[in-house]
Backbone:
């Protein structure tokens, strides 16, 4: 296990104190419906599961079935290996992928199919019932997630810094989803069945949402949020709502309007939340609010990463009502900064 430099007394900034004070003032609500790491172990709703010391917490646990979760375990030479964690804390290793998964700046991801029958990681798709594996062709660089059509991922050929989007069908065949000159870009983090295309004008960006139908993208809603699209962070699982740097406003791509949340602007003055916010369902997102952050920032990893003990209150905001509430209880937990997903308070794709 790599050693971590402990920070005993990190400074508390005013924006963080303001965020936590706001979170504490909200009405109570139920625990988050997504599994996450806590100081007590793996928490999934009201259930807390013991976690063996070999589990690598740089990836949030992914639910697969009622009482099982896919996790990563530490392996030699800084690599990680996937396994199934059961409700009693037992581990059942999954097949090792050719090559390695490394714990580092970019957190390895494991994706579970909607029916819970298959998982994908590295260059493999695995049938959990039979153990049968499919090696993904086209040198996969990024797995975007499962849809009812199959597994969407990005691989060769690459052009202008972007890869080609592929669909792995249930029969093991693959089909290309975009051409080399196509500006339609597939999305991940639970919205693998959607893609975005965009154009810029005098009033900022206009964006079009595309839905995967068969082996092609079908154009759906087009709208103009008037902001740079690079600020878009996450698309809701139904393809309607865009989380952007414009919080506490959320863009409604279906109706072409901003929806406002009942949140003070200073609650988002600190930008560390960008790596942690995520959709809980089609209408609500989860925002972990912390009173302390590591001083090294989001790019630290391995032995350069810092761990602090932070107070964490998860907040749930619902875009259809504009209201926010506390999602479960406030907790003190060890918090290690990681890029993209945080091991202490990050949430897995839905």
Residues:
């Amino acid at each position: 296990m790599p050693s971590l430099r402990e920070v005993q007394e990190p400074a508390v900034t005013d924006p963080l104190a303001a965020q936590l004070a706001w979170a504490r003032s909200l009405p109570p609500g139920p625990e988050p419906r997504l599994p996450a790491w806590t100081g007590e172990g793996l928490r999934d709703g009201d259930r807390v599961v013991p976690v063996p010391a070999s589990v690598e917490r740089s990836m949030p646990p992914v639910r697969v079935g009622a009482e099982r979760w896919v996790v990563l375990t530490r392996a030699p030479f800084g690599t990680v290996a996937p396994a199934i964690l059961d409700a009693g804390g037992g581990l059942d290793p999954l097949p090792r992928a050719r090559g390695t998964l490394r714990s580092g700046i970019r957190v390895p991801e494991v994706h579970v199919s909607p029916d819970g029958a298959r998982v994908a990681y590295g260059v493999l798709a695995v049938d959990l019932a039979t153990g049968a594996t499919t090696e993904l062709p086209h040198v996969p660089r990024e797995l975007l997630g499962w849809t009812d059509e199959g597994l969407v991922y990005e691989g060769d050929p690459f052009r202008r810094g972007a890869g080609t989007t592929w669909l792995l069908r249930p029969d093991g065949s693959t089909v290309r989803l975009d051409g080399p000159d196509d500006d339609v870009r597939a999305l991940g983090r639970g919205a693998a069945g959607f893609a975005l295309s965009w154009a810029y004008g005098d009033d900022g960006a206009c964006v079009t949402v595309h839905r995967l139908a068969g082996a092609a993208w079908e154009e759906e809603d087009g709208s103009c949020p008037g902001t740079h699209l690079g600020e878009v962070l996450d698309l809701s699982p139904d393809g309607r709502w865009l989380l952007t740097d414009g919080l506490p406003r959320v863009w409604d791509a279906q109706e072409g309007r901003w929806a406002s949340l009942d949140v003070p602007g200073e609650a988002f003055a600190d930008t560390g939340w960008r790596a942690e916010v995520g959709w809980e369902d089609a209408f609500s997102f989860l925002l972990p609010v912390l009173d302390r952050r590591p001083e090294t920032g989001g790019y630290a990893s391995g032995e350069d990463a810092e761990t602090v003990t932070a107070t964490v209150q998860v907040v749930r905001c619902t875009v259809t009502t504009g209201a926010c509430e506390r999602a479960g209880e406030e907790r003190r937990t060890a918090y290690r900064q990681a890029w993209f997903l945080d091991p202490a308070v990050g949430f897995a794709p839905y």
